[in-house]
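Morning run. Coffee first, then this:
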Amino acid sequence: MSVSEKPTPPFDPVCWNRHALLTCAEMRRAEALAVERGPLSFYDLMQVAGRAVAEAVMNRFAPSRVLVLCGAGNNGGDGYVAAEALREAGWTVAVAALAPPTTPDTIKAAQAWQGETQPLAVGLLEEADLVVDALFGTGLTRPLEGLAAQAALAVAEHKIPVIAADFPSGVNGDNGDAAGAVFRAKVTVTFFRKKRGHVLLPARQQCGEIIVADTGMAADVLDEEVPLTAENNEELWADLQPEMRAEAHKYDRGHALIFGGPVMTGASRLAARAAQRMGAGLVTLAAPQAAWEVYAQSLESVLVMPADDLMAAKSLIADPKRGPILIGPGLGLAPEGRALVLAALASGKPCVLDADALTLFADQPDALFKAIHEACVLTPHEGEFARLFGSQIDPALDKTTRAQKAAALAGCIVLLKGADTVMAQPDGYAVVNTNAPPWLATGGAGDVLAGMIVGLLAAGMAPFAAACMAAYRHGQIAAIHGPGLIAEDIIDGIPALLCRF
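And here it is:
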């Protein structure tokens, strides 16, 4: 797709570019454009980058013995500049080169370094309190080999803190791979914008604290080729949040319809509570007659309606007063569930399909894709994603690319859950969520997330914005609560969080 054909970003372009996650190729093109415009040169950018690495070292550590590991390319040039800046500040600095510099700017930086440069040897690490990793950065797309791999293993064995320039060596900056021996950084200093590999697992775990240094490049160098991916941030969708008008009544705030199952009743009840808390003025939960009493007794402010057959379900779906629909949490895998999902989709109303609503179509995914419309949000975890898309999307692809391909294939929003949840829309734009703490991995958390999304849809938010906001708030609440979190805690935390904004 050419630049002229690329659709507009889903959120304000200025905000989008501010939070953009670049591919390594996009970063190289942005640098080239900045240099072409002037007055910056590539060497100027290297100087700023290297000094930013040195500043990160000086701001976080007491003066000590630093070993700077330099590669042959431009990442190595950043290392030589950092070494000289630290030496000028009075630090004890040694430089070890994996290979002689090969680019003109790296040669110039190496010549400006006033100390001795030694060939890289694992034994040098015994004299180091800190390591600056400037071996490869984004310049490597395969596992580390030879001396570089040995150095990574030795650093880990001796537990030497690492400050990485752009990326820990061994990490793939585009897809987040971190196979084999990889440097694990305490701090990673990157430049201008984060790259995809900074936020995708497992590479994100190798980066430690990430500092984005300003290199002096103008933000509008991204205007000519707008990146397809951004990091989730409330600045993107803050202006799109549903308003609470003084004169509004419950019907103005939207009416969500959620379908529950006969056995796993907790899942849809969690979703209903989350939808209420997140913004829906009314929530109807359609339940099988056999379990109706369980639902009705525990959901005082939710309208619990019996729906034992498809005809009753269709009647609820057709009611014009009821808007967005959530199907999946606790639904079960009975064959009639498939007809229910298709009936909901046929209504044209916004739909959130989660859990069992996706698994029901594992053997006939095309039947689901044919019925889906653009106002739908699919919220699979990795297992559900594999069942639904595994035959058509290469599982070896990175998470962002898989979500993008799935959204294009399904023709709707796909939210691929996990510690690095990705929201993608069919035109290729995607947002990566990065604020989920590990204790969010608890039963029912996904049901709450689905309920939060349908609650925002009911309140009038567009599907992609609703998915991004729900994922972000979901992570925020969990982070505030801390370890010991259970799904109900997320729901209880929604009001206090919303009061802040």
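DSSP finds 19 helices and 17 strands in the chain. Good start to the day.
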